[in-house]
Task: structure prediction
Amino acid sequence: MEIYQVGGSVRDHILGAQVYDRDWVVVGATADDMLGAGYQKVGQDFAVFLHPDNHEEYALARRDNDVAGQGDTAITLIDDLNSRDLTINAMAMDENGLIIDPLGGQQDLAEKIIRHVGPSFDRDPVRVLRAARFAARFPDFFIADETLELMQQMGRDGKLNNLQPERVWMELVKALSANAPSRFFTALRKANVLGVLFPEIDELYGVPQVAEHHPEIDTGVHTMMVLDQATKLTPDPVIRFQALVHDLGKALTPKSKWPSHPGHEDLGTDVVKNLVRRLRGPKHYELRGVMAARWHGHVHKAKILRAGTILKLLEATGAFKHTDHLNGLLLASEADARGRLGFADRDYTAPDYIRQAFVAANQITAQGLLDEGYKTGPTLAVQLSQRRIKAIKGFIKNYTC
Result:
């Protein structure tokens, strides 16, 4: 039995980055050998085991995309490395720190290249998403021409048409958590598969906007700029998702209305819902995405909104129960305001205005009214709303920039 550290942890070790999780491959052992040594088997599809002490994952070596099953002791470390996706992920390290690199992963790291290992790359279509995700994780790396060509061929062959939705969603969230999420979508678009995987995003390209407010014109370009701005503002993938989907309704506005997009906020809510549900994403992504699509325009117009409309916005975000929801909307709206050609450094005070209005309204509470003698019911709800509107009006009257 031989044990090697493999994959991302070896890559990050070579890069001098912090290693959070380590994966191991075991050569020359069977499942019975692992169980006999006290390891605990995980799942049914692959022979993966948890170490009895540190609970790290140890997988039996496998060849190409075959299921390892009970373990084939004839499979070598090189066979296993050849079964992996990218050269930078296909390196191993022995117990003495010696790097085993038969596929040139170290050179590709040095030259900042994302390159597929070999023909087995196309046996798992999700690897197209992984290659794009690594472009997002390492912003100064580029996808090798031959890998991009293979990604394009996989798209033409329809190999991405039936990917499990959950796997696509998982790669999306990982990409949104990366250093430069927009590069994920840019890479997929260069591979001509963005329309297959994320048609809602792809359809934004070529949709014009009013040049005065959007010098970049193209809505798809704008969306990537917004995502870049959101990345600067927050590491939270949920808020970055809100930035990504805020303008999806613009692909549905009638061409006769272009470059204006009246009503795109309402049009976008169903598109967001359908995207999250199609990929079987969590409900809170749907909720927050819809929130951004529906209300970002109101945030931009905050200073001309009536007190009652501001209260509706606050209630729609659940601000009185979840202030993080309001904050997410405001950050996504700020990213939208700055994600325009030449607008990145412009003064944008709308979020602060909304936050101050919320502080004023939040001084009025249901408990306070109960303490005054009101009873739970419709009268209490009406009184709470009226007093909060009055508080917001007071804020508006005294507001100074």
Summary: The chain has three domains: 1-111, 112-193, 198-363.
